[in-house]
Amino acid sequence: MINKQADLMNKIVSLCKRRGFVFPSSEIYGGIQGFWDYGPLGVELKNNIKQNWWKSMVQSRQDVIGIDAAIIMNPTVWDVSGHTSAFTDPLVECKSCHHRFREDHLKENKCPDCGGLFSEPKNFNLLTEVYIGSTEEGKKKAYLRGEITQGVFVNFKNVVDSTRIKIPFGIAQIGKAFRNEITPGNFTFRSREFEQMELEYFIKPDEKTGNEVFEYWKKKRLDWYLSLDIRKENLRFRKHEDDERAHYARKAEDIEYKAPFGWSEFEGIHHRGDYDLKNHKLTYKDNETGEEYTPWVIETSGGVDRTALFFIIDAYREDDKRSWLAFSPKLAPCKIAVFPLLKNKKELVEKADSVYKELKKDFATAWDERGNIGKRYYAQDEIGTPWCVTIDFDTLKDNTVTVRDRDTAKQERIKTDELKQYFAKKLKI
Ligand code: ATP
Q1: Is the dihedral of CA 39, 44, 45, 50 positive or negative?
Q2: What is the pLDDT of residues 135-146, one digit of tens each?
Q3: If you measure from the C-alpha of residue 189 to the centroid of ligand 1, how many angstroms do you get, rounded to a whole number?
Q4: What mean pLDDT is predicted for residues 277-294?
Q5: Using an 8 Å Cβ cutoff, are 277 and 295 in contact?
Q6: Nearest-atom index, ligand 1, CA of 192
Q7: Closest ligand 1 atom, CA of 303?
Q8: Which residues line ligand 1 (CB under 6 A)?
Q9: In sequence order, what DSSP letters do the residues of 241-307 get, joined into one string?
C-alpha cells in the first residue's frame, strides 16, 4: 500500500514536469529547496483555481470585498501580530549528522536519516528576513509576509472608510506568502514560497454568532471543493487540539485531504476572536447605533498550491491503455483540443484552423496535428482536456465534427456552427 502511494506520487511529480505543470525552481542551477515554478499548464490551472475561488468568495456575494496588499510591510506589523515572537515551529537537530527536523512531524525520537540522537527542541521562527534600502548602513530589516492575513487587518479602517460596508462583512485576498519551513517537502505541499487564498470575516462579538459563522464557513468551504468535483471520501474535517492551535486562534478546524502521504491540511478555518484588531488597536463604529467595539474574526485560509496539487492527485486515473486527469472542466487548463484528421490534407487543415480560431475566442483551446488521432487523444487526456474536436472528411461534406469526451472516450457528431453553444452549456457559462 505504501509503495503504491509512493508510486502514485512519483507518477504525479513526473507528469507535472513532463507536461509543464510544475518545474523545480531554477533547475538549471540545481534548484533550490522549497521553491517551485509553474509551467504553461500549471499557471492556467492555478489561475482557474483563483478565479473560481474569487467568484465564489467575492464576486457572487454582497458581503465580501477584496484587496491586494503589499508583500513587504512595516516590520512593526509582525511585532504587533505576534509573529516575530510566536510564529515558530519546534526544531530539533541530529547530534550525529546535523540534519534538522520539525519535532512535531517526527514519528520516532531518533533521526530518520542516521538513527542519531536529537538536541533539545528550540523554537525556530519561520519569517523570512529581507533588507530594504539603498546603502549598506541604511538598510533596514523587513520581512516577506508569513501570512497574507495581516495585510487585511492593517487595511481594515481604509476599507470601512472607503466602502462604508457594514458588519457583518468579509475582506478577501489572494497572494504570496513565505515561510522558512524547516522541512519543505512532499512536492509543492510544503514550500517556502506559496500562495494563499483567505477570507477574514468580521462579526459583532458574540459567542453564539461566532460559532454559527464558524460552522457556516466550514460548510461553504467544503462545498466549494466539492463543487469542483473532488472526491468526497478524500476530504474530512479535523479539529485542532488545544496545544496545537496557532497563537491567534480561539478555535480551529482543518479541511484535510487524503493525500498519498497521509491525511494533510488543505485549508484552515480559524476563529481569531478579537486577537488581531485588538493588537492593531482598531475598532469598528456602528453609525446607526453609535456603538463602538472590536469585531471578532472568522477566517478561512487555504493554499493555491495545495489546491492545485490535491486536485491533480484526485483527478489522476489510469487503465491499461491510458492515464488521464479527470479535472472538473472548470479547472482544466485547456478545455478543448482541435485536430485535423490528417495534417497533409490542406482542406482539412484549413477547416480545422477556422474551427480552432473560432473556439479560441471563447475557450482555452489547443491545436494538435502531430502523430495519429489516438496518440493525440491520449496526450490531451494526460493533461485533463475534457473534449477533443476532430475535423474529418465528413466535416467537409456535412459541416459536422467529432467531439470526443475525455472520461468516457465516447464520440458524437456536432454541427460546427453549434459548437460554441454546445461547450458553453457543458461549461455552464
Ligand atoms: P501546516 O500545519 O501544514 O504547517 P499551517 O497550519 O501552518 O500549515 P496556516 O498557517 O493555517 O497553515 O496556513 C493556511 C494555509 O496556507 C494552509 O492550509 C495551506 O493551504 C497554506 N500553506 C501554509 N503553509 C504552506 C506551505 N509551507 N506550503 C504551501 N502551502 C502552505
Answers
A1: positive
A2: 888 889 999 999
A3: 9
A4: 95
A5: yes
A6: 27
A7: 20
A8: 147, 179, 181, 190-191, 194, 196, 265, 267-268, 301-303, 305-306
A9: PTTTS-TT-SEEEEEEEEETTEEEEEEEEEEEETHHHHHTT--EE-TTT--EE--EEEEEEEEHHHH
Q: Is the pTM of this model over 0.90?
A: yes
Tally Cβ neighbours within 10 Å of residue 71: 15
The beta-carbon contacts of 23-29 under 8 Å, at least 24 apart in sequence, are: none
Q: What does the pLDDT look like over 24-36, one tens digit per residue?
A: 999 999 999 999 9
Q: Is the dihedral of CA 110, 112, 116, 120 positive or negative?
A: negative
Q: Hey, which residues does 193 pair with through a beta bridge?
A: 178
How many angstroms does the Cα of residue 303 sit away from the middle of ligand 1?
7
Distance 245 CA to ligand 1 centre (A): 13
| Atom 18 of ligand 1: nearest residue by CA position | 267
Kindly report whether the peptide bond that precedes residue 168 is cis, defined as omega within 30 degrees of 0: yes
**CA separation for the pair 228, 329 (Å, rounded):** 9
As a whole number of angstroms, the distance between CA 275 and CA 87 comes to 15
